[in-house]
Protein 1
Amino acid sequence: MAERQWMGTTFGNGWMHKALIRLLHFTPVYFLYLFTDIFIVPFCLIFNKSRKTAWDFYRRHLGFGFFKSCHLTFRNHCLFAQVVIDRFAMYAGKGFNVQIEGTDYFKQLEKRPEGFIQLSSHIGNYEIAGYSLVSPYKQIHAIVYSFEKESVMKGRDSMFTKTNVSMIALQPDMSHLFEIDKALCAGDIISFPADRHMEGGRCITADFLGKQARFPQGPFSVATMRGVEALAVNVMKEGLKKYRIFLTWLPYDKQASRKEQIRQLSEAYVRELERLVRLYPAQWYNFFDFWAS
C-alpha cells in the first residue's frame, strides 16, 4: 500500500548531505546524475514504495498507457534525484541558468506598499525560486518545516543570506502565525508551499486531475484574511543546468464571503498546478497517496 502521509523531511541524514555538498565542490553535477540513474534509481524502483505511487499517478490520474507510464515512472525518479542534487549543488556554490516567465505582475506587486503571498508546489525545484526570485523593494519570508534536517536548514540559510530572504519555521504551537502577520503588516512577501498538508492540520478539498485531493487551508486563509494578492510560483527543470520560473497571478473576489474567497483562491492555485503538471508530468514529486481519503 502506498504511504498515506507525507513525512516532511529530505531523504538522508546529516553526514550524507554534508558529504554530498563536499563532493559537489569539485564534481560536475552531470557525473552524479549519471551515477544516480545507473545505481540509485533502479534500486529505488525495486525496493521503494515510490514506484507504486508514481505508476498510479501516470496510469490512473493522467491516463497514460502502460509503456508511457513505465517510462515516466523511471524518468520521474531520475529527475527527482537530479533536482535534489541541484539543490545541494547550490549549497556548494554552483549556479544554474534560470529564466523567469511572468515577471510583470511581480514587479507591480513588489512596488506596492502592501505585502503579498507566493504559493509554491512540490513540482520541479521550487527551492531555486528562493535563490533566484528576489526583490530590491521587499523582504521575502520563506515558510519552511521546522523538523527539516539540520544540514538542509543550514544550506538554505547560507543561500538566503546572499539574498533578501529569511525563513519562518512552522511551529507546533502556531507561533509562526504572529511572524507571518507581522511580515505582511510590514508590506513584505510570504512564500508558502501550498500542496501538502500536515497530519492534524486543517485542509480543504479540491478537484485535482479528476479526483478530490486535500490541500492545506493555511496559505489560502492567510491570504484572504489580509486580502492580499497571491502568485503561484513554480520552478521547472528544462535542461542539465537550466530552470524556468513560472509566475502566475491567482485572482479571487475580495468582496466575497471569506469561505468563498478561500474556495476561489485555492481553485485558482489548483488549476495552475494542474496545468504545469500536464506540461511537465515527469516532475511530479509527491511520493505518497496524494488523493488518500
Protein 2
Amino acid sequence: MPFSAPAHGLTLLAPQPHQTPRRTPLALWHLLSLDAPTVAALWTWFIARCSGLHLPWTPVAAMFVAVWMLYAADRLLDARAEASAAELEERHRFHHRHKRAFLSGIVIASIVLAALLHRLDGAALHLQALLASLLFAYFFLIHIFPATPLAAETGAHRLPKELAVGIFFPAAVFVPTVARQPHLRALLAPDALLFAAVCTLNCLFLYAWEHPGERSSAHWTTRFATRHLASLSCITAILSFTLALLEHRHSSAPTWLLALACGCSASLLLLLHTQRRHLAAIHLRAAADLALLTPALLVPLARVFAR
C-alpha cells in the first residue's frame, strides 16, 4: 500500500459494530486478499501493452502470486500484533479465523512462485530481487519492531504504510516493462509517479475511513494528507488528464492511456469518498481497490492504439 479532528468539513465514517459481513463476491475478493494481486497483475500487463511490449504470461502470474503472498502474510501478522479484537478490521479477523488455510496457501504459492521465477527475464528478476530485499527489510521493521508510543507522538517513527505502498507497489509493476525496455524509463517516469500518487491516495482514503476521530498516533504526513484528501485527489486527477493529453499529442506509443487510467482512478476514489455513507464498510474497502482497475476499461483503446 497509518490525530486532530478532521478539518475543512471532512466527515469520516463512524465506528461500526463488529458483525459478519455478507459474503458477496466483492467482499470475498477483498477478504481472500485477491484485491491487491489483481490490481498488480492488471497494471503489470497494461503498462507493457501501452509501451508496445508483448509481455509473457509468466511475469504477470508471478506478480499476482508474489503480491498475494505479501498481503496475506501482512494481514496475518497484523491480526496477531493487534492488542484487541476491537482494533482489527474484518479482513484481519477473517485471516485470523482461517489462519491455517492461509498459511497453507502461502506455502503452496511460494512453490508456484519459485517455479515461475526460473522463467523470468534476467534483468527484471535482478531488479525485482533488489526491490524485494528493500521491501522485506521494511516488512521486518514494521512487524518485528513496532513504533513506540513516544515515537508516534513525536512523529519520528518509521515511514507509514501509505507512503511505503506508494513507493514499492508502482515500482514493482513497472519493473517488468522497463527492465526489458530500458529506454522507456524516462518516458514512463511521469506515469509511474502518478500511479504512485494514486496508490498512496487509495491507502489514505482507507485509513481515513477506518480511523475516524482522533488520530494523534499517525505519522504527520498521514495527518496532513487526510485533512486534504479531496484537494489531493483533484490535483492528481488534473495532472493525470493533462499528462494524458500531452502524451497523446507527442508520443507514438499509447502510454497516455496509463495517465488516463490514473486520472480515472483518482476521480473514482473521490467519488467513493462522497458516497461512503451508502456502502457497507467492507464493500467500501473493496471498492477502493476496485477503483484501481480502470485499465480494464481501457483495454479496447490499448488494443487499437498499440497496433
Protein 3
Amino acid sequence: MGNAAAPQTGLMPKLVPGLIVANYGRHFLVEDTAGARRICHSRGKKSQGVVGDRVLWLPSEDEGTIEKIEPRRNLLYRQDEVRTKLFAANLDQVLILMAAEPEFSTSQLSRALIAAEEQRITPLIAINKRDLTLPFARAWERLQPYRDMGYDVLALALTSESPADTQALLQRLSGKTTLVLGPSGAGKSTLINRLIPAALAQTGELSQALNTGKHTTTSTTWYWVDAAHSTALLDSPGFQEFGLAHIDPAQLAAYMPDLKPHVAQCKFYNCSHLHEPGCGVISAVKSASGTDSISANRYQIYSDLYAQLSQAKRY
C-alpha cells in the first residue's frame, strides 16, 4: 500500500469583504457585512483606499490588512497644483451645503458641481440659515441660475427644530450614499447631528478605535442614517478652495449644464467659447433672455476657470 497523503496545512486565510468607513493615513476603519468594524492597514507603503471603497481584507488578531480594493463606480476629489484631496468613492449623490451668511462663493459652488458632474454623481444644493430673512433672500436670488439649470436646491434652517426640513432631507437621502460637502462653517456637523443623533457617539468610538483624541472632521467619515443600513451620509472636511487641476479645459463646458446645450451651435469643433466667431455659448450669454440663456456670472466663472486650467496644463 502506498503512503497516505499528508494532511494539508498552512491554508491561506480567507479574505473578508468590507467597506472603508473612515480613513486616517494608512489606518482604515473597515466594516464587515455583519456591521462589525476593525482597524485595517494598507498593504505596502502606499495608501490607496478611500471612504466608500469596497475592499477585501485579511484578519490578523485584532486588526487586519487590506489586500484588494474593488473597482470604483466613481471617485470625488479636488486637485490643485500641489496636492490631491480624495473625498469618497462609490457615491450616489453629493449634497453641497452652503449658508446664507457669510456670503458663499458661486465660484466654489460651481467647482464642486463640475467635480461631481465629471464623475457622474448627482448634485443636490442646500442653502442653510433660511431664518436670516434678508441674507437668505439674496442667497436664494443668486442661486436662480442653478435652479434654472435643473439642480435641486433646498432651503434649510438647521439651527431650528424644523420637522419639515428634516423630512425634506430624508426624502432625498433615502436609499442613497450621499457625501455632504461645503465650506467651513456652513453647518455640515449640525446637519449630520440632526439626521443622526448617535453621530457624536460614533465619532467618540472612532477616536477610541484609532487611539486619537477628540475627533474633528479632518477626513471623510461614513455614517448610517437608518438601522437597515440602506441610507448613508458621509461627513467631509470643510474647504475654502476647490481645485480642478484634473479637469481638461477642453471638456469644461461639458460639465456645466447651462453651457453644454449651446456647444453644438458653435461653428468650430474645437471652440474655446472665449473669442471665436460663431460661438453658440457666447451667443447665449449675449442674449441674456429666456431660461436657456447663460448668466454673466456663470460665463465669467467658466472664463476664469478655463484660463486657470489652460495655464496649469502648460507646466
Protein 4
Amino acid sequence: MAAYILRRLLLVIPTLWAIITINFFVIQIAPGGPVEQAVAQLEGHSSGIMERFSGGGQEVQLDGAGEGEQASGYRGSRGLDPEVVEAIKKQFGFDKPMLERYIDMLKNYATFNFGESLFKGGNVIDLIIERLPVSISLGLWSTIIIYLVSIPLGIAKAIHHGSRFDVWSSAVVIVGYAVPGFLFAILLIIFFASGNYFSWFPLRGLVSADWDQMTWYQQIGDYFWHLALPTLAMVIGGFATLSMLTKNSFLDEINKQYVVTARAKGLDENNILYRHVFRNAMLIIIAGFPSAFISIFFTGSMLIEVMFSLEGIGLLGFESTIQRDYPVVFSSLYIMTLLGLLLNILSDITYTLVDPRIDFEAR
C-alpha cells in the first residue's frame, strides 16, 4: 500500500503540470487579457476606477470621472500613446515572451509562490485563504447533509423495493434533482428572506456584523443561521444520485448467496442487513465521500455564493476569470486541482480501511 501511495503522489506532479500547461496556453491566446482590460479602463470604458502604471520612469494615472479622463494628457477619443501601452504591459509582466512567462510561472508554483493579484490587490494566497471558510462551509455541510439523508433513504428504498414508498420517494428525489439549485435559492429568498412573506434568515455574509461581540454559543447559532438557506439550496439536487446508488448497492448485496445462507440459518433480518449486508454495500458509498465533497466544493457553490452575497472561492474564480486576473485564476486552479488529486488518493485509502480485502498492490 505504501508503494501504491508513493506512485500516486508522484503522478500528481505530471498531472498538475499538464493541467496548468494546457490552461496557461489556452487562456494566453484568448482575447481580452489584463492588458486589454487596463487599456479599456484608460479609454473610459469603466468608470470610477483609479489605476497607476509605472514604466520607464513614467507614471500614468486614470481617474474615472467621465469623458474628461486623461492619462498623460490623453483623452479617450484620441487613442492611447504606445508608451502608455508598453508601460501597462511591463506592469503586468506582459513585456516578456509567452514562453518565459510560462517558465517563470512553473518555477513560482513549484515553491507555492503565487504572486500578486492584478486587479484586486494583495497576495493571491491571502485572497484564497480569505475566501476558503465560505466554500469549505458550504461544501462540507452540504455533503454531510446529503449523506445523512440519502443513505437511510436508500436503505429504506432497498428494503421496500417496488412498494409505494419506493415509487413516491423516487419521484420526489428526481424532481429535486431536476430543479436547478439557483432556482430553488430564488424561491427560498423570496419566501424566507426577502420580507415579502417572511424574513427569518439573513441574505448576506457568513456571519453577522457583530459576530465578535457574541458568546461562543451565539456565534455557532449565528453561523448556522446564515448557512441555512444557501446550504439547503445546494443540497436539493444532491439526494437523487446517492439515494439510488445506495439502494442499488443494497439490492445487489441482498440477492447474493451469503444473504440467502444467513436467512436459511434463521438469522434475524435486521441482523443480516446491518451486520452482513451493510459493510459490503456501503463500501463504494463511504469511500466516495472525499470525491463527493470536492465535487460539491468545486462546482456547486458559485451561483449560490453570488445570490447570498457569500465571498467564496467560486465567486473569486468567476470574478477573476471575467477580469482576466491570471495570477488568481491559475493559482485557484492549481490549488483546487492539487486538493482534488490528494482527496482522490484519500478516497482509495478509504477503500482499504472500509474493506481490508482490497489490495491495490494485487496484480
